[in-house]
Amino acid sequence: MAVETATSVVHPAGVTPGLPGVATDFASDKQAFVVPWGKAMMWIFLLSDTFIFSCFLTGYMHVRISTTVPWPNPSEVFALTIAGKSIPLILIAIMTFILISSSGTMAMAVNMGYARRRGKTAALMLMTAGFGATFVGMQAFEWTKLIVDEGVRPWSNPMGAEQFGAAFFMITGFHGMHVSAGVIYLVIVAMKVWRGDYDRKGNYEIVEIAGLYWHFVDLVWVFIFAFFYLW
Amino acid sequence: MSAKEGQQHPIAIYLWIWLLLFVFSTFSYGVDYFHLQGLLRWSLILLFMFLKAGFIVAIFMHMQWERLALKLAILVPPLCLLILIGLMAVEGDYTFLTRSESFTKPETPTAPAHGTSSAH
């Protein structure tokens, strides 16, 4: 009996045994979520990204709690002097509005996609990418101002706790990278929309999936804005 | 809705959420602009943050119209981050106390060797 069981694993009828069985099991047509697989995969990717950004923000929280040196006041660090008047956080506020607007145009693009309006979908996506590129440009300006004019470094800064620079460059840098990647992603999908790929394929899911990524980038900014700039 | 392909909703709802996000952002910027401090500042920041995040996920990312299985699969796992945040807050407080105790008092004999960099 014991000798027999080692070699005679009982297989239900119609399934492949052994290593090829592993492949067919994993590749078999089983669906957990009633959404296109690409959308489920994007959601799972975004879930993992949530953990990455949460770890950064939690790390930032920890160094800010644990430092004995006063934390630089972001309201003053990120103030801009416009027409001789210093306005707190104004650049960051404008960046926030730009990113929200890009989310708005992206939502409209998804809507137009499902309505099969090819030209409008592509135009709205390119507009979204344009807002994204503007955001990254303003971020580059912000970094330059901080590094060149104010002497902020990842290991030191003239305003207070040394950890400020490390947390700032790490968190906003990673977010900026996500925005940049998103701009490229959106431009590629917009070109395909424009070419009519999704009309031929008969569905515009890809636009919604790209939209999920873009809204997530906006979502992360909501948390960075609250915890890093306002807190 | 199920007869139609994908997520199709009236365009007005997106425009309303867009407007709402603008309003909430203006409010949270106002928290800083008018120098609100203390508990009021923190609670308002968190309130506007969660409202914005909620509307983005629910409407823009269409989570509100997805099936419960997908909602749970995506929204429940991040809750374990609360444990990480709690632990790190406790740990951060402990580190702060230890640093205050050991590194910020110049009369402590071992302080100069370890403490110069972190105490500025």
Order of helices and strands of chain A: HHHHEEHHHHH
| Chain-averaged pLDDT of chain B | 86
CATH C-level category of chain A: Mainly Alpha
Largest sheet of chain A: 2 strands, antiparallel
Write the topology of this structure.
The complex is a heterodimer of chains A (231) and B (120).
Chain A: H1 2-7, H2 18-27, H3 37-66, H4 74-77, E1 80-82, E2 85-87, H5 90-114, H6 118-149, H7 163-195, H8 197-201, H9 205-230
Chain B: H1 11-33, H2 38-60, H3 68-75, H4 81-102, H5 111-115
Overview of this protein structure:
The complex is a heterodimer of chains A (231) and B (120). By secondary structure, chain A is mainly α. Chain A has one domain: Four Helix Bundle (Hemerythrin (Met), subunit A) (Up-down Bundle). Chain A has nine helices and two strands; from the N terminus they run ααααββααααα. Chain A has a two-stranded antiparallel sheet with strand order 1-2. The mean pLDDT of chain A is 91. With 120 residues, chain B is mostly helical. Chain B is built from five helices and no strands. Classes of the chains: A mainly alpha (231), B mainly alpha (120). Chains A and B meet through helix 3, helix 5 and helix 9 of A and helix 1, helix 2, helix 3 and helix 4 of B.
Key descriptive features of the protein:
heterodimer; A: 231 residues; mainly alpha; Four Helix Bundle (Hemerythrin (Met), subunit A); two-stranded antiparallel ribbon; 9 helices; 74% helix; B: mainly alpha; disordered C terminus
Concise structural overview:
The complex is a heterodimer of chains A (231) and B (120). With 231 residues, chain A is mainly α. Chain A contains nine helices and two strands, in the order ααααββααααα.
